[in-house]
Specification:
Length: 267
């Protein structure tokens, strides 16, 4: 089985968010896929199974659980498909996933993903969550996946040093928590960080799916349909977000292949 490591939401190697992409030649069980993801140890491993011209089944696994939606591993998968010649450059890709159909197309030198919007509703933070983050919230809410915490300044986002065991315990049924603020840099509209210790990821370097929530959140506050985002992890990541009709979000970014190889499957 072909395997690649791809850095997503970056134009240079060793930045953005790394994802493993595995091209399946069968339909192995979820337990096997989980074992591969745990062995590789990246925040997400994407498993692609061709099901038609430009159409692929796509599932994502963290080192500990299968997840319902992952932006950076989808971007990495689209990059892999085109680099490996599995579809023509002009072909729009369709990924069948647990979050419904997802689409990808080339947009100049970058890739644009068509994802469902995941807006947040205002909701009190669970007991212990803000204390575990060490954050002073101006607003808290959640969507079906994650909690969202708004703080006043970018320096507060960058200074966070969460207590990850306490944060994992306080997230309850949520996958993780987004912390966001306006950007100090005029090149970006907002910054964020994303923590998901309960899913085996203390801090995710760049989280595409979180921007399906952050895009509508900041779009409403700033009165914009197109936004520029920076995820302020140690690796850093750049994204564009466009709010589309029909409750959809266009996520834009670039990707870089770090290595290619083969996954040996024991008999």
């Amino acid at each position: 089985m072909r395997l690649a490591l791809v850095d997503a939401f970056t134009e240079v190697p060793f930045a953005g968010n790394p994802a493993a992409v595995c091209l399946l030649d069968g339909d192995p069980p979820a337990a096997w896929r989980q074992s591969v993801a745990r062995e590789l140890g990246f925040s997400e491993t994407a498993f692609l199974r061709p099901s038609g011209e430009g159409v692929f089944e796509l599932r994502w696994f963290s080192p500990t659980v299968e997840v319902d939606l992952c932006g950076h591993a989808t971007l990495a998968s689209a990059h892999f498909v085109w680099e490996e010649g599995l579809a023509g450059d002009a072909v729009s890709l369709r990924f069948e996933s647990k979050s419904g159909p997802l689409f990808a197309r080339r947009s100049g030198a970058s890739i644009e993903l068509d994802f469902p919007a995941e807006p947040a509703r205002e909701d009190p933070a669970p007991k212990g969550l803000l204390e575990a983050l060490g954050a002073r919230a101006q607003w808290t809410g959640r969507n079906r996946l994650d909690y969202l915490v708004l703080v006043g300044e970018e320096r507060e986002v960058r200074a966070l040093r969460p207590d990850f065991p306490k944060l994992a315990a306080s997230c309850g049924t949520g996958r993780g928590v987004m912390v966001t603020s306006p950007s100090d840099d005029p090149a970006f509209d907002f910054v964020s960080r994303f923590f998901a210790p309960a899913a085996g990821i203390d801090e995710d370097p760049v989280t595409g799916s979180a921007h399906c929530c952050l895009g509508p959140f900041w779009g409403e506050r700033l009165g914009k349909r197109e936004l520029r985002a920076f995820q302020a992890s140690s690796r850093g990541g750049r994204l564009t977000v466009r709010i589309e009709k029909g409750n959809r979000i266009a996520l834009g970014g670039s990707a870089v292949t770090i290595f290619r190889g083969n996954l040996e499957v024991p008999e």
